[in-house]
Amino acid sequence: MSTTGKFLSDIEIAQSNKMGHIKEVASGLGIIEDDLEMYGKYKAKLPISLINEEEVAKNNLILVTALTPTPAGEGKTTVSIGLTEGLNKIGKKATVVLREPSLGPVFGIKGGAAGGGYSQVVPMEDINLHFTGDFSAIEKANNLLSALIDNNIQSRTRSLGIDPRTIAWKRVMDMNDRSLRDITIGLGGTANGIPRQDGFNITPASEVMAILCMSKDFTDLKERLGDIYIGLTMERTPIYARDLKAENAMAILLKDAIKPNLVQTLEGNPAIIHGGPFANIAQGTNTILATKMGLSLSEYVVTEAGFGADLGAEKFLDIKCVAGGLKPKAVVLVATIRALRHHGGATKEEYNDANVTRVEKGFSNLEKHIENMKKFGLNPVVAINAFPADSEDEVKLIQEKCEALGVKAIVSEGFTKGGEGTKELAAEVVKVIASGQNNFKQLYDWKAPVKEKIETIAREIYGADGVDYSKKALLDLKKIENLGFSEFPICMAKTQKSFSDNDKLLARPKGFRVTVREFEFAAGARFLIPILGNMMRMPGLPAVPASEGMSIDNNGKISGLS
């Protein structure tokens, strides 16, 4: 706290913290200095050789997810970091494993992704900005493939005969820039290439990002890069990145990006941060390698999956855990009273107004998420992420309703108190793991028909009455089957604001159907992407971007970053 009694901003708290040298953090994990690739004093890359599959299987993976969020988010990262601090406070060896922030949200509206208050990872500014250059490397590898595609179309001697109208690959940039969603390239004469329609996605939406997060080692990374689908020839033959001999050059650009990054929490505990796909349009979790690295080096690993449990957690469990052979031992479901008020009908201006009636009405959203986690064989612990406007009556109501569902709900005060405020939550998570009551099982079989897999997610997780398909979606599905991709898992692209594909349907909607508008697929990442509604892969900036409130002084000290 400041001397005036005003709570310090996230960046002020981070800047007032005294960090230990990264080699000290590594030493606590049993890593010798010679194994570190240091980026200054406080960041380091970890070699993949440190992963030990026996330790991965033995140690305890904890997933932090959430109810359906308000636009500001409900604090999964803050709770993940706070829980890690709390576990270490009660004598457990714990590491938090997180995604890397994207510059688009940092300078847009959502802010960074390094936690908040007294539950942060540091150096906060570096993590939220360029960090160790992973996003830049992913961007360059993606755009190298774009350049190779257009170069091949231009070539008279080595052309593969790619039909420009069928190219599915887009360029990427890690910034919110709506003007780049749809563009025309190759204008200005024959020397500038063949004119065609193109566009940009944001870097977290790149398949290269998804591939990095799904790869098991460097050999697997190269194979997956080669499997990227580009389009068709004039004779309707599929073309992949390997046909352009692109995979090795792309992998060269990712040779350092594939290594997980080690930093620390405010309390000096280890944090591994690696990869950063969005959860509403991609799989929304950090890399398999980072999670396995954490499990190789510590007894407990806390990780999070983006947005609500209907998106991030479902994908984490059905895609990442199955692909990586991971078995979570516990789930923490983050809830905030403001979000329950929101689902109970409160307007944005009323989020901070105590209202037991609205919380009771909005509880149906949390109830559905609890039910969903149980379908995976996981009985969650609910973490009530505390806010100053929470009332005792509202907290008591949530705890009583959770108790009736056989779930413990505990107030988490990591934002204001760090690990001291999460010791009770940490103890309950340890208790759940020790009980052995959780036994993870996937929701669907990857080998089931595509429509059956989608129907299972829609009915079981969203609560939909069924699934409808547009004509385009049915044509896309036929293409997927012809290409031999039917046994890929499902990575739904859906609004994060509702269980349904209509962001206006709050709480726990019933009597609705969802519509698959079209399909995309990630042949290298190996999942199918049914698109529900109009999902943007290149966000735009708000009327007042967060960048306007940022500044930097002559000594390089940054303010206004959150």
Which whole number gives the mean pLDDT?
95
Class based on secondary structure composition and strand pairing: alpha/beta
SS element count, helices: 19
- As residue ranges, the low-confidence spans are none
Query: How far apart, in Å, are the first and last alpha carbons?
Result: 17 Å
Q: Please state the second-level CATH architecture of the largest domain.
A: 3-Layer(aba) Sandwich
Radius of gyration computed on alpha carbons: 23 Å
Helix proportion of residues, in percent?
A: 25-40%
What would your notes on this structure say?
The chain has 562 residues and is α/β, with parallel strands linked by helices. The protein folds into three domains: 10-132 and 257-435, Rossmann fold, CATH 3.40.50; 134-251, Domain 2, N(10)-formyltetrahydrofolate synthetase (2-Layer Sandwich); 450-532, Formyltetrahydrofolate synthetase, domain 3. Helices cover 35% and strands 17% of the residues. Strands 1, 2, 3, 4, 5, 6, 13, 14, 15, 16, 17 and 18 form a twelve-stranded mixed β-sheet that branches. Strands 19-20-21 form a three-stranded mixed β-sheet. It has a two-stranded parallel sheet with strand order 7-10. A hairpin with a 5-residue loop joins strand 1 and strand 2 (44-45). Helix 4 packs across helix 17 (423-435), helix 7 (134-154) packs antiparallel against helix 10 (247-253) and helix 13 (337-343) crosses helix 14 (356-375). The protein is globular. It starts with 9 loop residues before the first helix and ends with a strand. The mean pLDDT is 95.
Short description:
The protein has 562 residues and is of the alpha/beta class. The chain has 19 helices and 23 strands. The longest helix is centred in the first third of the chain and has 21 residues, at 134-154.
